[in-house]
Structure prediction request, 427 residues.
Amino acid sequence: MTSAAGSNRSSRIAGFHKLSPRDRLDLVAGFAGLDEAQVAHLANMGNLDPMLADKLIENVIGTMNIPVGVATNMKIDGEDVLVPMATEESSVVAAVCNAAKQVYETGFFTSVSGNLMIAQVQAVDVADPAGARIRILEKRDEIKAACDACDPVLVSLGGGFRDLEVRLLDTPSGTMVVTHLIVDTRDAMGANAVNTMAEKLAPSIAAWSGGRVYLRILSNLADRRLARARAVWKAADIGGEAVRDGIVSAYEFAAADPYRAATHNKGIMNGISAVVLATGNDTRAVEAGAHAYAARSGRYSSLTTYEVDKDGNLSASIELPLAVGLIGGATKVHPTARACLAILGVTTAERLARIIAAVGLAQNFSALKALATTGIQKGHMALHAQNIAMMAGAVGEEIDRVARLLVERASVRMDVAQKVLEEVRGN
Ligand code: NAD
Prediction:
């Protein structure tokens, strides 16, 4: 079955999914012509049991280790918290630590709007959409009973069906009747929970609407599950009024311009996705929700706001959907996620969402402060220089020496790093 790299290679491999991770790896190695070191590297699954990895996704051949750093200085609702963050990007963890340090005295204050998720059921070819909407709304009690019957565990924990909405959408192929099932999913992200309910109700909705039902799935625009955080950085603690005003101006730029807002919000997600990943939650679900929420007015804008308060200090806030859980997906089964949740000491999904919102705000504050003052490259480059040094071949103590020299020479470039490494080795 194995073929040498470059000759008669076919990606159609019958029964690939039935092989063990090691057998799949050998096959892939033959296909791609991997050397022994590469195969040995991929075969080392680190701290994730190969059997578990093989259960989490399909066609597993290895794992991808991403560093987990810990953000310090975070005080959230009066409680000190150490926040694990999984990211491959340098400066992200440091940015959160720095922002939190400058507001440690008062810290961050957070809240959530609830744990409500939305599942959508799409009905098409409905002759009387307005009438169908009313007929479905009349069935609220029946719908609640059917949803709750799908998940007795959730109901026993105080969750389950909460509300019903029916929206009419004008589309090129006619008016669609879209039913929203609004469900409290407690400490679960809730995708599977609400998808099951939507599928269960689909035949009834088809009958009540007189149309045909197609899609039955959650919305990642979880705007009934908003997390919020706020903090006030004292002008004197952040370098004075000029820095404060620079940050406000940077925010106003993002609020007014989607080109800037995309980068502004990317920085926020540097922090948020890192905690979401470290806790085994679904980064794509959170990112989709965040960006959709940022565009809710019809124009993509900032997820944070910055104002000068009556005392002349910088009042900052963030609000975004945060569908994260402590149960379901990888959160309960991935040992690293479990350990990270233990570091956070969270016992509810709400608390996790609140901490994540605070991290997003901290991240954003640091980025705006750097951009409004020295620019991000100064802080970024010191850490980036280490990556460049490693790419140039530096190992062990050489990494720091080469990185320091690159920064001193204000030339963090691969070609320079190679020359510097030769110098260091020549000494
Ligand atoms: P899940 O179905 O694995 O677990 C949730 C279930 O656990 C609940 O339905 C409930 O029966 C039970 N439960 C036990 N204790 C609970 C508690 N304290 N609070 C709430 N429920 C409790 O997980 P899920 O959260 O429904 O689904 C999350 C997974 O779905 C993620 O892996 C995500 O990647 C995936 N997913 C996402 C999308 C999307 O975002 N578009 C689509 C499909 C699947």
Observations:
- Residues 151 and 193 are 7 Å apart (CA to CA).
- Residues 151, 153-154, 157, 159, 185-193, 218, 220, 282, 285, 325, 327-329 surround nicotinamide-adenine-dinucleotide (CB under 6 Å).
- The first helix runs from residue 21 to 32.
- The longest strand covers residues 160-171.
